[in-house]
Amino acid sequence: MRAKRGSRDYGSILLGSVGESSVKQRVRIQTLLTASIVVANLFGAIVAVALTAVGIPQPTIFTAELWWVNFIVVPVYITAAFVVGIGWGTYVGVRDLRWAIRDVAPTKRDARRTMRLPWRLSLVQGFLWGIATVMLTIMYGIVDPQLIPKTLFVVSLSGVVVVAISYLFIDFTLRPVAAELISAGHRRRKRTGVKARSVVSWMVGSAIPIIGILLVLAFGLARDETSKLDLFVGATVLGITALFTGLLLTLLSSMSVTGPIRSVRAGMNRVSDGDLDNADLVVYDGTELGDLQVGFNSMVAGLRERERIRDLFGRHVGHDVAEAALSSSPELGGTERLAATLFVDVIGSTTLAAQRRPTEVVEILNKFFAVIVRAVEEHGGLVNKFEGDAVLAIFGAPIDLDDAAGSALATARDIAHGLAEEVPELSAGIGVSHGAVVAGNVGAIERFEYTVIGDPVNESARLSELAKRDPRRPLASGRAVKAAQQKEADRWEEQETTSLRGRTEETTVFAAFVDGE
């Protein structure tokens, strides 16, 4: 199945997108291939005519003796070559792209043939221009031997230009097919890399025309009837031809370079915007630029995996703890700080497990924990531990809070209200304490966890047991209420002073007012 992506997946809007249907893509590729061959041959014909008529006017081919070549042989051959070239090219293309037409996975043989297809189609054009070179050189030479070097140079130069332009056009058109090969695991570095493309562009666009200018000068010096004007015109036409040919080949070559680079830049923009899911690139280039695309995709995969691990880590230990751990080296030990602790313990969990199926128990407990996590995070706390059917939350560590005690008390009231509204099947005792704790990493260097240790943890746990008498009213220690800001402290009333199990000090117990009382 094709993923829905942008209109420049292959570096150009002309090539469509990955989300296109296979039928539409085949029609697009066939149309572009035919247009590429026609345009390349048309450009070659223009170069040939310009050089023959103006660039190298002497010796001329426009004589009465050569009418049968100019008006019969040349038109007939051009027509025949056009038909044969299109037909032959279509046959080769259909044969080598049969796997794509049938929409099946390519074999290694299919991949090799497809990778060579641009050269094969270009060489078809070269073969036809080669026949034209030999045939026209012989025919013109029979009538006037002095036309042999001119004909040989003009037709062969035009053929080389056609082959070069055809290759670059066809290679560009077959990017979607190359992308399918690469995605199927058939990626092999092309011999025609970026450097080779640049050399071809230089050779056809600059080197050959310059050689032509030198040959024009040599022909002029060898012929007494050649005037200075003829030499000037010939050199000028060849120079103009070099300018246009060089520009066209440079543009085509640069398109093969800027396309992959532009796709990487677009991918980088998506990464910087945080959109890692849609940042993968379509790899369609078999040169060093394809290596760049592959490397970018590998980087994105690594970032995505890192983000997934970060998210998973944050879900296990809390996002604040995760960020603190990722920003510093892991160390055992902790620091003393003032913090509030909140303990929530389910009432009657054993009975619940005995009366319901395990899947139902898990579903109810997940709803129970969801209420707690939401309330704790809304007030800036950290859910530190899930202990069976109990929860320990911390306020003021590892992130400082202006009113840690007040946040813990407000969270306790929200949890009591939320459980009554959203999880009527369960009730829980809720206890809150405040005081000095040691917060840090506890365990071994190979495996440790962030937690808090201290009397407030024990006190909040014991208060949660006491709160099971009336689950509607969370309980808090006097020091927690005293440490909270007045607005929150006014929502709690003193109930009793008692000695909690496991503690030597007595605890002044406060209970939250029930809404409506």
TrEMBL record:
InterPro entries per record: A/G_cyclase, Adenylyl/Guanylyl_Cyclase_3/4, HAMP_dom, Nucleotide_cyclase
Guanylate cyclase domain mapped to chain residues: 340-464
Biological processes per GO annotation: cAMP biosynthetic process; intracellular signal transduction
Domain HAMP: 255-308
Transmembrane segments: 32-56, 68-92, 117-140, 152-178, 199-219, 231-252
Region (Disordered): 464-502
Residue ranges with Basic and acidic residues bias: 485-494
The protein's name: Adenylate/guanylate cyclase domain-containing protein
